[in-house]
Queue: 4 jobs
Job 1
Amino acid sequence: MYTLSAGLWEKFFKKKDYYVVIVGLDNAGKTTFLEQTKSRFVKDYGMLNPARITSTVGLNIGKVELNNTCLNFWDLGGQEDLRSLWSTYFDEANALIFVVDATRPDQFQVVSDVFKDVMSNELIQRIPVLVAVNKSEMEGAAPAAEVRSVLHDDNHSGDLAVLPVSALEGTNIDRCSFFIPTTMGTLVSKLDSWFERYEGKS
Ligand SMILES: Nc1nc2c(ncn2[C@@H]2O[C@H](COP(=O)(O)OP(=O)(O)O)[C@@H](O)[C@H]2O)c(=O)[nH]1
Ligand SMILES: [Mg+2]
């Protein structure tokens, strides 16, 4: 029994490298979010001037170290014709960040449909999902609760958090990164107690 549990543990939960997919509609602020995250956690990283961030066609990657955890971000292009490629990255993903532009309530129906589509993927249903309600520093930006109300996650069993952020100003960006190892930690401790109970019975 020990060998089985130790093997599973190593394979799924003890690894310190986490892969995080960043998705959301085009222009929501995904690349700015990643740049801001890198500028906060990568020593001597000079954030790109936001005015020089262009629309993402392929993929931007970023690696960030937090204590003994390494977060590998994949920032994917959000244009309609690129969205079908997102799921090819879901296989490896340990967590997902969904970025919403809070200043565009006219897009919330599309956001709702796209989010529903992402959450219908069974690989996503069991991993932590963080919704970054971006551009929240702007006057008139929708509050996180309003964005939450258009998002449906009925079949999702992983943790879900909805946070107002400003990728431009850096508000709450650290909390987004810490959400991932924190929820992973919860998963590990849940698994730990499950193994204890299971092994107690065997
Ligand atoms: N006001 C404001 N603008 C932002 C914020 N984050 C991104 N933007 C702007 O939104 C636009 C799209 O950002 P980008 O990161 O390229 O979006 P992406 O297409 O989702 O990767 C750019 O003009 C950014 O400067 C934010 O928190 N506040
Ligand atoms: Mg981009």
Note: The mean pLDDT is 86.
Job 2
Amino acid sequence: MGAKISREEDRRVLIIGASGFLGSKLFSALSVESDVIGTFFSRPALGLVYLNIQDKKQVSKLINKYNPHVIIACGGMTRPDECEKNQKRAYDVNVKGMNNLVECSKGKIIYISTDYVFSGEKGPYCEHDDPHPINYYGWTKYEAEKIVLKTDDNNLVLRVSGLYGYNERNNEFIETLIAKPVIYKADNCYSSNLFIDDVVNCINSFWNKSVRPLFV
Ligand SMILES: NC(=O)c1ccc[n+]([C@@H]2O[C@H](COP(=O)([O-])OP(=O)(O)OC[C@H]3O[C@@H](n4cnc5c(N)ncnc54)[C@H](OP(=O)(O)O)[C@@H]3O)[C@@H](O)[C@H]2O)c1
């Protein structure tokens, strides 16, 4: 079962991070009905083009070549532990990279952010809650959000929490569950996890509507 998408033939969509968990699901679902260009960084896949978001010339070249109406930004460093250990890289990819995208874009940007922009002290959170990131990953995502929102009133930020679901192209989550006999997880963390198909449908319903710019 997959996300159902309505037809919009003249819609050209660029997905940054189409080799990732959410990006690859979006790529498959939106390609059925729209002209979709997807990028990879370290994991090449059929139909995707290479992009390092840190390289502004590459970003500009890609956008000028395809002229997307909408850019869905779900690429970057997404693992909190890696961001903590490699803070310069996390900043260069997640913050400077988004700045490159925003400066080169001519259309709407839908930026996929995270509930890590909040401290986690309370919850569930809503759009009116003030962000207060307590780790470097959350901080880079919040900085990128501000860049996206201050540049264009049409841009959107979606703060999603832990994603789950099936994905033909990228099934790291399920493969890990099958491969490892024992998985260690924190037992003092609570999260409102999201079904990945719901996120895809939600994104699809957003772009030609006038909606408020921030969703949690
Ligand atoms: N998954 C979750 O549970 C979750 C929860 C909350 C928020 N989010 C947010 O949702 C979005 C998607 O998450 P995800 O789980 O799908 O991420 P993911 O599987 O880790 O994918 C990240 C994507 O970013 C690409 N990328 C990495 N470095 C890049 C660079 N320098 N230039 C361009 N692209 C680069 C990767 O390409 P390669 O793989 O080819 O290297 C990959 O396509 C992220 O913005 C994340 O912060 C995810």
Note: Residues 16-17, 19-23, 40-43, 51-54, 74-76, 78, 93, 97, 112, 114, 141, 160-163 surround NAP (CB under 6 Å).
Job 3
Amino acid sequence: MRGLSVPVIIAVVILGLLAAVVVVGARQVAAQVERARAPEQPIRFDHVIHVRLAQLDCLFCHRNADKGDAATVPSVQQCMFCHVVVGRGNPEVEKVRAKWDAQEPIDWIRVHRMPDHVHFAHAPHIRAGFDCATCHGDVASMPRVQQVRALNMGDCVNCHRENNAPTDCATCHY
Ligand code: HEC
Ligand code: HEC
Ligand code: HEC
Ligand code: HEC
Ligand code: HEC
């Protein structure tokens, strides 16, 4: 250590510690963002099983996507169409059956959510020929749904511009 003064050594040690704090902090923030974008649901619903294995169409469950503003998430009753019989004894399926017996809805945690001042409508986009994956990615491969596209104002407006869709403020803002 000859040639290095004590203050320099102390400065190097402090910088090292600061860097470690920044790295740990960044990892925690990244983990929080990940959790926010792919929240854990009250029941482990898996799109891979339902789309790949059970061969269900997105619109079988998200019935309103080509008709109105919200795509909508199916009621427990729609799940019971199969789960009266399928998956008996599977603890996650039993949670669905318990909700049905209690006539309670499942409190799914929203993954995509526009702020209140923004108006988004599914139907015009589906009618314009976009498939779900354009905005939601390959949900059929997601055991847990996560948001993969920004869907912020810049993203919306860019796509509207490219497709000659309206870009005046009132299109998307109340
Ligand atoms: C068996 C019914 C079923 C099918 C089929 C299905 N989904 Fe879902 N979907 C759900 C349920 C239940 C949720 C709510 C729980 C969750 O987020 O995992 C959901 C959530 C979602 C979400 C997140 C909604 C939010 O909170 O932002 C998207 C996006 C989505 N589905 C897209 C699709 C697409 C695309 C397909 C076809 C490839 C599809 N789904 C097929 C039942 C289904
Ligand atoms: C042009 C982009 C776009 C396309 C295409 C699209 N979505 Fe969405 N989706 C969104 C946005 C943005 C939200 C958040 C809407 C909000 O919070 O008001 C959303 C929310 C959802 C939700 C949760 C809230 C709700 O509306 O019920 C589901 C479920 C969903 N989408 C399913 C689908 C399915 C299934 C398809 C294909 C049939 C599809 N989406 C196509 C952009 C899109
Ligand atoms: C068309 C039939 C069908 C519908 C409708 C359906 N499911 Fe399923 N579900 C299946 C099949 C098939 C399996 C796989 C069963 C197995 O592994 O034994 C399954 C498995 C599951 C599992 C177990 C997942 C795991 O990781 O073990 C859950 C939880 C589940 N479904 C929830 C739901 C919910 C919630 C709905 C309504 C939104 C729903 N299902 C609608 C057919 C269906
Ligand atoms: C992938 C390209 C694309 C993205 C991304 C997209 N849009 Fe669109 N949007 C379109 C197109 C194209 C139309 C016009 C459909 C038509 O001609 O009816 C449209 C139509 C609309 C309409 C209906 C306008 C009307 O007056 O009929 C609304 C509202 C809307 N978009 C809001 C949004 C919002 C909010 C977002 C972002 C969260 C968004 N869009 C993202 C392509 C997109
Ligand atoms: C194609 C849809 C679309 C159009 C057109 C659009 N916006 Fe937005 N705007 C959004 C979305 C989505 C958000 C929320 C996400 C975000 O903050 O980027 C937003 C957010 C905003 C916010 C809030 C920003 C913040 O930091 O909270 C303001 C202010 C705003 N827009 C103003 C405007 C004005 C002014 C126009 C017209 C020049 C306009 N927007 C046109 C989609 C749109």
Note: The chain has nine helices and no strands.
Job 4
Amino acid sequence: MPTAAQKRAETIRARRAQQARMQASIDAVKAAVATGKCPDCGRAIKRNNALAGWYQCTQFGAEGFRADASQPACNWQGFTE
Ligand SMILES: [Zn+2]
């Protein structure tokens, strides 16, 4: 059985790992936004003002919502904060 101190250390380790993953994701989205190009399909990125820091590929979503309905959809999106 792990001790209380061991459990606490594991909780802290897991939280730090999660924070590192979130920061890596934010950094990757910021880098993509800086280029203005979707890292998946190369099309433009747009901001979605529904949530702070939300960016999506202009080809995100169903026909009628994406920039060019004749081109395939792209699922890239992310947050910068
Ligand atoms: Zn895309």
Note: Helices lie at 4-35.
